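B., you asked whether I could sanity-check this one before it goes into the benchmark set. Here's the sequence:
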Amino acid sequence: MNLKLKQARQKKGYTTTYMAQELGISKPFYSQLENDRRTLSYKMAIKIADVLKTKPDKLFYDYFKERIK
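And here's what the prediction gave me:
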């Protein structure tokens, strides 16, 4: 699970439905991203970070680092 993403979303008080709407994707798609059931693109990471008003690397550095190995 992408715990940093979930924690950041919850800290802002955003629901998965809200995140999906802001990102222009379905709620199931967003939930799959948050639960590591779908591969996260860097483009989507940037969009998510923008909605959460943070930098992509703050949320996803470890995620992408593990993918490179």
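One thing to flag: The longest helix spans residues 56-68. Otherwise nothing jumped out at me.
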